[in-house]
Fold this protein.
Amino acid sequence: MANLVNLKIDGIDVSVEAGKTVLDAAKKLNIHIPTLCYHEDLCVAGNCRVCVVEQEGVKNLVASCAMPAQEGMVIHTNTHKVRNARKHIVELLLSEHNADCTKCYKNTKCELQSLATEMITGEHMFIDLVPDKNYTIDMQSPSIIKDDSKCIRCQRCVRTCTELQHVSALGVAYKGDHMKISTFFENSMYDVVCTNCGQCVNRCPTGALIERNYIDQVWDAIYDPNKHVVVQTAPAVRVALGEDLGFDVGERVTGKMVTALKRIGFDSVLDTDFTADLTIMEEGTELLTRLKKALVDKDPSVKLPMTTSCSPGWIKFIEHTFPEYLDNVSTCKSPQQMFGALAKTYYAQKRNLNPENIVSVSIMPCTAKKFEADRPEMRDSGYKDVDYVLTTRELAIMIKQAGLDFLSLPDNHFDRLMGDSTGAAVIFGATGGVMEAALRTAYELVTGREVPFDNLNITAVRGMEGVREAAVTIQNVKPEWSFLEGATLKTVVAHGLTNAKKVMQAVKDGKADWHFIEIMACPGGCLGGGGQPIPTTPEIRKKRAEAIYAEDEGMPIRKSHENPEIVQIYKEFLGEPLGHKSHELLHTHYHARKRV
Amino acid sequence: MPDKKLKRVDLIFSEECNCKDILAAGLKKSKDDIIKEILDSGLRGRGGAGFPTGLKWKFTSEQAEPEKYVVCNADEGEPGTFKDREILSRVPLKVFGGMAICGKAIGAKHGYLYLRGEYQFLRKDLDKALEQFHTAIKEIGFDFHIHILMGAGAYICGEESALFESMEGKRGEPRNKPPYPTIAGFRSKPTVINNVETLVYAFMITRIGAKKFMELGTADSRGSKVFSVSGDTPIAGIYELELGMSLADFVEEFGDGDTKAVQVGGASGFCVPRKKFKDTIIGFEGVPTGGSMMLFNSSRSMYNVLKNYVEFFEEESCGQCTPCRVGCQQLRKGIEAVKKGEKSAAYLDTLKKLADTMKITAKCGLGQSVANSFSSIVDNFKEEMIY
């Protein structure tokens, strides 16, 4: 039993575990204390001071987010002194903030705006400081826009970038009235170690960090009669989109999403899950091939462990941070980019379309996907493989713009070709999902039997633990895989770049004997991606993950190699995994980047 | 009414210690005896805040954690304060001695002296003195090593938790408190952090005894203190004076005959106008000071004085907390607007309320103390702010 401390808040007795804060205790009593710099995922900063409360016997107000609950404390959250102080603080923040709300992308979704509404600030008490500030907007990144005029210096982004992601692209520069959130030597976000993961965007309370949106470009394409617009939707989108459109967290809205996309006017509504299955075929084969070359042929040029390559945040991270391990990264493109390359080749052929007239749009839980689509490596179809990437949030905006009542939309199915998927593909959206899907297929490929886990659920790789290891011993293999007889395949799963760094450091230090590593840049995997509905918390991510696994269980086919369209594409177009055509369209290499 | 008269004292500058003998005598005492002596003396921190030094040492000594530190705060940055510089150049061995005795009392093996960046010129002599000190302490057989770390010129790093951050190689930003340094200070280990002058007095107390020390000063403000006297005075300089005198006495001694106000305690202290000189005691029961005493005569514009202070804070705020970062900008812009007639005189009341909010909501002492000078100058020299 943990130590309890007893305190009194607004006259009500409450007990909390030692180590909890006054804010935690107030939450337990359903007493709302406004906060700005506080975020459940991050360490306590205590710098915005909005959450101040009065503690009896203490001269100054205390920041409830940073004050540990102590035995016998008497706290008041709603006194004249507290109210005046909070109002002053919000007024001060507004005086430094470009409050041109109607022009702001975060209008109505801004935490500062909500606070100002709550306080009824009205006529501003203080002098407007914005005209003297020389604020700048950094628009160079294809993923993220950083607008300093909206920044309230709460440092949520800095803490996200530093402690959650270990990237430290964002930091604090200067002091006093010049203090600002900046990058190394104030370079553009495009030119620094930023991985475009967008976790900062997920946690920015205002419009200072937002995704670069391509909504108008997509509408233009849809309205252009000469264009055939295909859209693909990533697995994690369907378990989160509802949050922005009136559903509870954790509601699956796959069918409604398909209907909405059709009603919006996309010519073909397809599924990234299809290429997730394809990724398993290619990546699974690649892993087995690497194992054979290493174990049987003793080829020293083959690099193990092999890591996944689906997460573009992870790719940019390794390019900057562990470039010497780039050969360990699977050569598979991400499902989004495989889809893009096929949309303008295979799909175009089958549909008898001129690829020049195809506009390929993807709906992603991710901001880094925007950068990925812009990479020079991603033009193997002869065109830009993916033209526009929209986040889950942008899709929600389009659905509202289209005048659709999402709650009442009927369900619909993805179009065919490249619309079929399996449960294995769906779980790509959760950390550990790629690993689980790969194991389901690779084990069966090698042994001819299903993975020896109850109902195909490989629970060892699931969950929200930052780094999770699992081992599978392979027995009674098919003759062609005899070299794997009795071998134990060692795997590890990491999510969030801080954990990615731990895993890679272990590899670098020679302390690891893994064969296969799954890394997702974002906490929870894609379901916690930088393009997902705001807010994000551990609880929200847990519910989205439950939805993903429920979706998997509900799928008639749950193994990638059994997807009929996958069988078809190998028969009609690709030949075999890692074959010539695959190499041309579905695989790539990445290059080292400097560390600034 | 103050019953103490101004009295010059010569306790800490008189002679540099023969480090070895004194240390040996001081270090012979048990840790409990040292702490008791410091507690009994009533010594309070000389940096300005006035926390009882003995308590700080006692709390730290009670921590079970084996690794502890003594930190000497030599980041002397308060406007109008220059006494630590003098102490460090004239009696550095006493400073090191105080650190060693504290180390003995709390069970620390390492001491750090965090030296203000602008005091680089003291470094050579300090290193020389430190070598002497290390030789002496080795001979005594006490395991204690002192390191000197340089600041980089930020006022905020004089705030103890920002100072630790700076020492750890991070951006000098104050931490949330609690935990206090006695539990989690430098490297999150129990740490005593004392001002240069406090450590010298602690050292002197182990030498002359608490009883002797207590003969000086008042019940709330024991002993003497080193003052940095500047401004409109014919005899600017460093003076060691008994605590508890009236400001009138002080002005009589140091003023130029036309003193209209004294800023006690630097930019973060209080401005006392002439009419209150007689009733103001210099000490913790009256107006406390870290040593800065700035005298202004009637030729000075108190608007300019205030503007200078606020600009100083505006620049020296670390910028992390809202009340301090934005509040300082608003105070500066606000008094400028009133002066120019863009805002009415009533706006000064809005600004005073803002200063009050800063006092109770800012994260650290910097933002909390801006109101001291702001409100005391605006209240006492309102006309000068407007016309």
Summary: Residues 302-386 of chain B form a domain with the de novo design (two linked rop proteins) fold (CATH 1.20.1440.230). Chain B has a mean pLDDT of 95. The two ends of chain B are 35 Å apart (CA to CA). Strands of chain B lie at 69-74, 110-115, 145-150, 191-195, 224-231, 237-242, 259-264, 270-273, 292-297.
